[in-house]
Amino acid sequence: MGPLPTPAEAEARIRDRVRALPVESRPLASLAGAVLAQSVRAERDQPPFDRVTMDGIAISSEAWRGGLRRFRIAGIQAAGHPPLALPDAESCLEVMTGAVLPAGCDSVVPVELLSVTDGWADVDESARVEPFGNVHTRGLDCREGDMLIARGTRLGAPEIAVLASAGLPRANVHADPRIIIVATGDELVEPGEPIEGWQVRRSNSYALRGALALRGFSRVADDHLPDDPQVLRDRLAAHLDTHDVLVLTGGVSMGRYDHVPNTLRDLGVEEVFHRVAQRPGKPMWFGVAGKGQAVFGLPGNPVSALVCLVRYVVPGLLAAIGAQPLPVEAVPLGAPHQVRPPLSFFLPVQLERSPTLGLVAMPKPTRGSGDFISLLGTDGFVELPPGPADYPVGYLAPFYRW
Ligand code: AMP
Ligand code: MG
Known about the structure:
Helix content is about 20%, strand content about 30%. The chain is α+β, with helices and mostly antiparallel strands. Magnesium ion binds near residues 184, 185 and 227.
């Protein structure tokens, strides 16, 4: 067996092997976080008309320059109504934000600078009236046919607004992966069920599902399997038929009942790596099945499972939706930390403000990978390079949020 991959190498192998899922058409209301598989051009000029940006009156600025300060109100131009026309340069039209600028007008005086009585508007002398003042002119932001969003863009709020404004009720995006979280272990008992002294609550699946939900992955099924190779084999075979991504927890270590790697191998899932030079989470397993399904075998210990989900499963899922890796932020340590083993170390941290260093990551080490209680109040973890080494205050470490 060669040297174990580092976390960066393990992540790269995952990205290398996970293929983007097929393209599907989805309605605007369910596009957040998806990756666009088409390009988008402007349906119309934006703004599509000379758009009034303040409530007030629309006038001809020429009349103002000619000294006119009192205008007869000839009508009201509301948003969503076809343009009116100014009957003569001595009149004005009341206008509302979002209305089209009436024909014959070229400037808007805000209501704050007016006194209106008996159908007449007196404009305060302090008003600054200029052509296209308080008007967002047609085509200023983009022109009809302009390329607005390129294929491959991840859709956030601004992109979705632009899609809608381009008149598209749906868009082509890479499918959302069908994920199943499979907990393994005879000792696990569902919250709400009676429990014996030697059993433990099945908590990982809910933690992992939460971490996925926070990242917009919501097609998540759930199963719990015993440490029985025959049952594992049958149920995992079925799950491989109906899911794009399997996330298993437990059963990947060296124990007598850790059947997951062998079972997956029997099912024809190609092992890409087993074990990573890291702590916690060294037994991490990853493979790819016949139809390209990604299979992640996370260690069962709750700290390991959550760290491995964030560090490996999330990048894999991003590859599955055709997204680029997220930029990883480096945060300075707020207190020194010593790493002894020659393994990359995932250190839980709480983000705090330091008067001298700005945002810092305060180490919150756990009492081992089973101690998930110590994760309460932490924001995520930093990745420290293999020891033995002393990392000082201010050491810049990549930070991963839970
Ligand atoms: P394993 O990786 O199967 O050897 O499990 C390692 C440790 O994690 C054991 O103490 C398990 O009881 C615990 N564990 C495994 N799966 C879960 C789970 N889904 N929720 C909570 N603890 C778990
Ligand atoms: Mg187990």
